Amino acid sequence: MVGTDGSETASEAVRQAIELARMSGAKLAVIAAFEPVPQSRIREEKGDVPGDVSYAVGPREDVNVTLEAAVGMAKQEGVEAEPHPRQGDPADAILDVAEQTGADLIVVGNKGMTGAKRFVLGSVPNKVSHHAPCGVLIVRTT
User: Fold this and answer.
1) What sign does the CA torsion over 5, 11, 16, 18 have?
2) 3-state DSSP helix/strand/coil percent for the chain, to nearest 5?
3) Domain holding 48: CATH number?
């Protein structure tokens, strides 16, 4: 499985996870987390789009685009991939899906692992590597 936020660095982790899944014949779970969007913002945005696409406006719209792109990349390489949108903290989302799916390996990028900031705020790769129920591959993306 691989976690992504749609960034360029996360795309490198996705690319490497796809390659590992392709070489091993594994199915790939792709996880992206999102924060809740206030209902007032959703109502406002729905009013600004045509009625035939207003159904797509919601708290998960950005994460859905991110997941569709990653799953599409996997399918182009012949890898079966399943999207897992989750609300909340990205590291918690990755860990939850890893436990639920019985993941063999978690792939994450190293973004956020350098500097003193990681000791104060923590980071997704640090938290995942310390609490994962399986092996973790931290891909150098920066």
Assistant:
1) positive
2) 50, 20, 30
3) 3.40.50.620
